[in-house]
Specification:
Length: 560
């Protein structure tokens, strides 16, 4: 699986020469598609390249949509303007301030996959089963890309074979592309194993196929004409994973926390991951999100403008107390000591004002994270170019590393807890609340939170779907997946919650004594610059102008 093998393999071709003269070299022009893609070894290395297309642990990949939600924003101070968490989106890339929203419009990757799949039948394999497995893995990655495009753009060209540069396809109806994704996943499921031997850990499994299928069904709830069929499809896909017995939640809050460090690599909770490759430093979130006073190793003097991402007060203040109540509804909540007796996942998810961390350059010293400009030492002053809200990201950050750009945890694309919550949602969507509730409680009790079956479902007043059980499940998804991926984006888009939850963002309270003040004034990031105004056209991302110029048959989404 190691991507380094790809480079070693390519380099070996340049070193091949005559046995009589070590100075003989092979002309690189001989490395053509017809000369290389011939054997299962060739195809294996090519397939490893396609694994680069799995969602990765980088702000510009899985994390971008998270900043389009009510839970977080990204203060962009590097003049790229690429994260768009102020919703000031554009179809035109303007140097210095605007980023085109084309992260998921990936026909360069689709082309590579189609090329691989067309070369596969003519390659020589020792076993038909391995050839079928290689094809299934490539088709999975293609289906994953199309599934995301269907959510983000709606109608998109469905291209499943090599086309010439002169071909200018138009957009295929959303339903047709969605059906293609489901059919592909159904067809490849039996060709993939439930598990792999240790040397192939991280490859696509049958569980990953069903998990992506469940995501696809649920993400279609917001637009598909047959919503009941979408819930039923997600239920069946999740049940297959659960019944396999392959996966399990790691125990306790420590098990939850372990999902974001090296100890969870290949663990029982991982359904789909992008594996850490040491040679490529493939886990950059630690470097992207670490507090500027807590860097380690050779990078300790670099990047004082990091930690540009922050959770909003909307998220922090809705994380329940240990009693299963919103802080505003719990008489035991103490605004002067707001981080005590909260859902234990909060401390794993966020770096909060007053948290003690290893100091930069000397981990034996204590560094106190303090973003309030009036409380010394305010090295993380939220009015300066650092964290915009005062609530920083913690998942995947390991302060024991020699350098934070060597974060060594596999990036979890889908965890088993998401399978359980998708299962509960699929059941609830069909009115099977009695079956959904114990599944939801299973995720809660893992971290020591009280069962809803004992305390009753919460009354969600922000972002309600009108279904109390589904509201509780979406709330649990907020607690479970905050700061690690696009799940909240999925939830808002498929249930059309944008007009209920997107608006002015706030940071920490201005009070210097009540750090969890719920009623007094709060800091407004960038002096109110993130007063976001929701428009329904956001439910489909715009097609970048350069794409439409290159292909006049591509039409823009409504409103853009």
């Amino acid at each position: 699986m190691k991507k380094i093998k790809i480079i070693i393999y390519i380099a070996s071709f340049t070193l091949l020469g005559s046995c009589d003269d070590f100075l003989d070299v092979v002309d690189l022009d001989t490395l053509t598609a017809t000369s290389v893609f011939k054997t299962e070894v060739d195809m294996g290395f090519a397939l490893n390249h396609l694994y680069n297309f799995l969602p990765g642990a980088d702000i510009t990949q899985e994390m971008v949509p998270y900043f389009w939600t009510d839970e977080a924003l990204h203060r962009n101070i590097n003049l790229e303007g690429r994260f768009g968490s102020d919703f000031n989106w554009s179809t035109v890339k303007q140097p210095g301030n605007t980023y085109v929203l084309d992260d998921y419009y990936r026909y360069d990757r689709i082309a590579d996959i189609n090329f691989f799949l067309e070369a596969l039948p003519n390659a020589e394999y020792t076993t038909a089963g391995l050839k079928e497995s290689h094809g299934a893995q490539a088709r999975f990655i293609r289906a994953l890309i199309y599934e995301r495009m269907v959510l983000a753009y709606g109608d998109v060209p469905l291209i499943t074979e090599i086309i010439s540069a002169d071909d200018l396809p138009s957009r295929t109806p959303r339903l047709e592309v969605f059906n293609f994704v489901i059919n592909e996943l159904n067809e490849i499921e039996s060709a993939l194993p439930l598990t792999y031997a240790s040397e192939d850990k991280g490859r696509i499994t049958r569980g990953a196929v069903n998990a992506l299928k469940a995501r696809a069904y649920l993400n279609a709830v917001g637009w598909h004409i047959d919503v009941n069929a979408m819930y039923a499809g997600a239920e069946a896909a999740c049940k297959s994973i659960i019944d396999s017995g392959v996966y399990a939640l790691a125990n306790g809050i420590n098990g939850f926390a372990s999902q974001f460090n090296r100890s969870s690599n290949g663990g029982s909770e991982t359904v789909l991951s992008n594996n850490f490759i040491p040679e490529f430093r493939t886990q950059p979130l630690a470097r992207r999100f670490a507090q500027k006073g807590s860097w380690r190793g050779p990078q300790a003097t670099y990047g004082n403008n990091q930690s540009r991402a922050g959770y909003t007060s909307d998220f922090i203040e809705e994380v329940q107390t240990i009693n299963g109540l919103f802080p505003k509804d719990d008489p035991t909540y103490d605004p002067a000591n707001p981080w005590s007796n909260r859902d234990p996942r909060l401390a794993v998810t966020a770096v909060l004002p007053g948290d003690e961390l290893p100091d930069k350059g000397n981990p034996d010293n204590i560094y106190v994270y303090q973003p309030h400009p009036a409380i010394l030492p305010s090295r993380d002053d939220i009015t300066k170019p650092s964290n915009p809200t005062g609530y920083s990201f913690r998942k995947y950050i390991d302060y024991t590393l020699d350098a934070l750009d060597r974060g060594d945890a596999d990036y979890k694309i889908i965890r088993y807890s998401e399978v359980l919550l998708m299962y509960a949602e699929a059941l609830a969507g069909q009115g099977k609340n009695g079956e959904a509730l114990p599944v939801l409680d299973q995720v809660r009790t893992r971290v020591g939170m009280p069962k809803y079956s004992e305390i009753g479902l919460p009354t969600v007043t922000r972002g309600t779907t009108g279904n109390q059980m589904i509201d509780a499940i979406l709330l649990e998804r907020r607690y479970e997946f905050a700061g690690e991926g696009p799940q909240r984006w999925f939830d808002i888009w498929r249930y059309k919650l944008g007009d209920q939850v997107i608006g002015q963002t706030f940071g920490i309270p201005q009070s210097t004594t009540e750090f969890g003040d719920l009623v007094g004034p709060k800091f407004e990031p960038n002096a109110g610059a993130y007063n976001r105004v929701w428009q329904d056209k956001f439910y489909l991302l715009p097609i970048a102008q350069y794409i439409m110029i290159a292909n006049p048959n591509i039409e823009q989404n409504p409103g853009w």
